[in-house]
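Students often ask why inverse folding is considered easier than folding. One informal answer: many sequences map to the same fold, so there is more than one right answer. In these notes we will look at a single instance of the problem. The structure comes first.
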């Protein structure tokens, strides 16, 4: 039977998710409702992004990826983009002591080369300083797009194939695992639970490959109002599901009984 996904492990009542991905949406609407400017919403959102790391650790989550800036977000008003980049440059260095204390390894998914110098430096510094931490991976998705991630992998593979002694053999050897190996997410586990706040029910170019079998959880709560309790609800919901990966419920029960 051909596998449908690079890593599949059907589960009834799954264990706490290993990798949780969050589309942190709703900062602008939160600010508007408060009569504040959009940047104020992003500031409050950044506080929640800082706090959620501890909440996630308490839930046993090992990898947390937060969608902070999409490839499409460059098209927002210049002032907002500049504000977001400044927030990153200012707040990330301030978060470093608590990340060290919480044993957080800070990582990035996305192409940070076009980021303004201050933001880029803050990101590189946070990655470097926390590289040996192993409590939880905090993966900031910055200038990230799932389509761009797939395109970059395809380009790398085409290049390798052109350079191979036998391009035919290289092409024949290409499979799901080797394609994933060429992607930015290569050493990050597939997303188990994908949460989107702010009421929209779309992926907006987040983890297109690695959310292939993610459980999706949408909530109307605006990101600046998200709390430890909301995270708990999302995880409870996740743990009440059956992750079937194409199997039937009966097959899953049989696998479960074998493991007992
Ligand atoms: C998400 O909040 C943060 C970023 C995209 C950077 P939004 O800014 O999209 O908030 P809404 O959707 O306008 O409320
Ligand atoms: C997705 O939110 C990107 C981030 C949360 C960083 P958007 O607000 O940009 O998504 P759309 O435009 O509603 O799809
Ligand atoms: Mg939005």
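Output (designed amino acids):
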């Amino acid at each position: 039977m051909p596998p449908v996904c690079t890593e599949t492990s059907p589960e009834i009542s799954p264990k706490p998710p290993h990798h949780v991905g969050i589309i942190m949406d709703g900062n602008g609407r939160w600010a508007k409702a408060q009569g504040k400017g959009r940047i104020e919403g992003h500031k409050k959102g950044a506080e929640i992004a800082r706090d959620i790391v501890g909440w996630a650790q308490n839930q046993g989550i090992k990898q947390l990826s937060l969608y902070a800036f999409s490839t499409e977000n460059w098209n927002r008003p210049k002032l907002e983009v500049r504000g977001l980049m400044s927030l990153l440059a200012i707040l990330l260095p301030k978060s470093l002591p608590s990340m060290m204390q919480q044993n957080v390894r800070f990582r990035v998914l996305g192409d940070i080369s076009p980021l303004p110098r201050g933001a880029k430096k803050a990101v590189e510094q946070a990655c470097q300083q926390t590289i040996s931490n192993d409590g939880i991976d905090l993966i900031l998705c910055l200038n990230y797009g799932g389509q761009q991630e797939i395109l970059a992998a395809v380009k790398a593979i085409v290049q390798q194939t052109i350079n191979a002694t036998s391009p035919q053999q290289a092409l024949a050897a290409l499979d799901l695992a080797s394609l994933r190996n060429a992607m930015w997410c290569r050493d990050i586990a597939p997303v188990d639970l994908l949460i989107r706040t702010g009421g929209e029910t779309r992926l907006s170019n987040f983890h297109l490959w690695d959310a292939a079998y993610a459980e999706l959880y949408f909530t109307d709560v605006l990101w600046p109002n998200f709390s430890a309790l909301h995270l708990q609800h999302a995880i409870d919901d996740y743990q009440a599901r059956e992750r079937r990966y194409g199997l039937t419920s009966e097959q899953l029960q049989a696998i479960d009984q074998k493991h007992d």
